Amino acid sequence: MHTISLGTVMAVLWMLLSGYFDPLMLGFGVISVIITLWIAHRMDVVDHEGHPIHLAVHALLVYWPWLAWQIVKSNWDIAKIILSPKLNITPHTFDTKATQSTEVGLTLYANSITLTPGSVTIDIRSAGMFEVHVLSTNAREGIETLEMDRRCSAMDAKAKAKSKAGQA
Predict the structure, then answer these.
(1) pLDDT-derived band at 162, boundaries 50, 70, 90
(2) What gap in Å lies between CA 154 and CA 150, rounded to an integer?
(3) Nearest Cα residue to 68 out of 106, 105, 113, 116
(4) Are 98 and 149 contained in the same domain?
(5) Are the beta carbons of 67 and 120 closer than 8 angstroms?
(6) What is the model's pLDDT at position 125?
(7) Given strand 92-97, what is the order of strands in its sheet?
(8) Cβ within 8 Å of residue 18, ≥6 positions away
(9) Residue-averaged pLDDT of the chain
(10) Between residues 154 and 32, which one has the greater pLDDT?
(11) SS3 for 73-108, per residue?
(12) Angle made by CA atoms 131, 137, 139, in degrees to the nearest 5
């Protein structure tokens, strides 16, 4: 299932990025996707971590629109800071808790923090603790509400339940 899903994503991405729709180029695209899938399968990298299809529906319908809105809000805050004559920045680092239980969930949360402007996940201190660098106290407050952590944990829990159901 992971291989079929990955092949579909690669084929659609190839068509969108190439812009070629004549039979010869489509044939080359199909051949390149098949060869890439074969290599990925031989390398044993097509799994629940490399291509987490168990997150797809919830992520597309609920999490990604919410994250996009958080990115827009953070961009607005950063733009106000940059355009302000005072340049009210207070760059600092702090530790925040991560409650995800899988590597995919932890990666999703760390990358989500980094995607929002004004904050970067620097390090995983220990199991469940991230070191985060922020540009302002507003960015820190946004992370300390743990709303993003809660949403990532909810998606992680759904993914974990689906993978357990699929293994049974």
Answers:
(1) low
(2) 6
(3) 116
(4) yes
(5) no
(6) 81
(7) 92-97, 129-134, 119-126
(8) 25, 29
(9) 83
(10) 32
(11) HHHHHHHHHHHCCCCCCCCEEEEEECCCCCHHHHHH
(12) 65
pTM of the full predicted structure? 0.69
Alpha-carbon span 167 to 118, nearest angstrom: 40
Structure tokens at 164: 């357990």
CA–CA gap between residue 164 and residue 168 (Å, rounded): 6
- Whether 47 is in a domain gets the answer no
Give the integer Cα–Cα distance in Å for 160 and 153.
Answer: 10
Q: Domain of residue 31: give its range.
A: 2-42
The tokens for 140 are 């820190």
Helix axes 64-83, 137-144, angle to 10 degrees: 160
Q: Which amino acid is at 32?
A: S
Give the up-direction half-sphere exposure of residue 27: CA atoms within 13 A in the CB hemisphere.
Answer: 3
Rounded to whole angstroms, how far apart are CA atoms 140 and 69? Answer: 17
Domain count along the chain: 2
Residue 28 sits in the same domain as residue 104: no
53-77 residue pLDDT tens: 556 566 667 888 999 999 999 999 9
Give me the DSSP letters along 133-152: EESSHHHHHHHHT-HHHHHH
The structure tokens listed for 153 are 């944990």
